[in-house]
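Side project, low priority. Logging it here so it doesn't get lost.
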Amino acid sequence: MLGVGRCENGLYALDQHHHALVSLLSAHKPRASAQLWHAHLGHPNYHIISSLSRLGSILYSNRSLPNNSNICVGCQLGKSHRLPFSLNDEHCRMPFDLLHCDLWGPSPVSSITGYRYYTIFIDDCTRFSWIFPLKHKFDFFDTFVNLQHYIETQFST
């Protein structure tokens, strides 16, 4: 048994007294480092690992817990954030002066007709968009050339 708790509104809440967490091997509790317990328990705060150790639920070999400068890589990546894009309200003045494009894929599931990639072209001035499904990644270049030819012939630009 791993824990004792109750079902509340479809969620299981573990009891908070010291008998709530029970070791898998009651006769021989495995002894590991605090860092290993941290990884095995889903990267909780080291105060939680220390509390579990005081309650006798887990044992760890080195009694010194890591300090804040020795945070694991998984925790650092989980707390990192990408910087936001800078606001840019400037747009081209004429249609088709600048096109943005993106190629997405491969899709884990093919469409009914066998498409696994998708590309989008967005005109910077008008924000008009074209979306093309692609069967192969190398079809992107031909799609771009065909769109360029279409713009040149239909809009004379």
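Brief comment: Residues 23-27 have pLDDT under 50 and may be disordered.
Revisit when time allows.
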